[in-house]
Amino acid sequence: QVQLVESGGGLVQAGGSLRLSCAASGSISSINGMGWYRQAPGKQRELVAAITRGGSTNYADSVKGRFTISRDNAKNTVYLQMNSLKPDDTAVYYCKVVRLEGPLVYDYWGQGTQVTVSS
Predict the structure, then answer these.
(1) Of 17, 25, 65, 92, which is most buried, counting CB atoms within 10 Å of its CB?
(2) Under 8 Å CB-to-CB from 63, ≥6 apart: which residues?
């Protein structure tokens, strides 16, 4: 099992910045991918950014050039630096961790943290 604790959400004006953190504990030795998703009211949950254990990254087109995902494998923590925030970025942001156990793949989700961007 993996437990995730997110922090860093809040209210910010358009153009501002926030940094989200997600710390993993438990069966962390087999964690592979880590990432951030978001879900706005009335919309489906969508991928924001993801990072592999080796550091390869993937971003949604809507956040490229503004958001940066990173991870500290020693601290089992993934970060999302969000700059130049827009009102459209308002959503609940969820951390997701993928754990591998042989041929099996397990997904774990954080509790979510609210990000609100005012215009």
Answers:
(1) 92
(2) 48, 49, 82, 89
For 43-98, the pLDDT digits (tens) are: 999 999 999 999 999 999 999 999 999 999 889 999 999 999 999 999 999 999 99
The total of other beta-carbon atoms located within 10 Å of residue 62's CB is 13
Cα(67)–Cα(83) distance, integer angstroms: 6
Distances (CA, A) of 53 to 70, 93, 97: 10, 21, 11
* Best CA proximity match to 31, nearest among 96, 112, 110, 111: 96
HEC per residue, the chain: CEEEEEECCEEEECCCCEEEEEEEEECHHHEEEEEEEEECCCCCCEEEEEECCCCCEEECHHHCCCEEEEEECCCCEEEEEECCCCHHHCEEEEEEEEEEECCEEEEEECCCEEEEEEC
Instruction: Take residue 25 and report the two structure tokens written for it.
Output: 């504990």
User: What is the rounded distance in angstroms from the CA atom of residue 94 to the CA atom of residue 69?
Assistant: 13
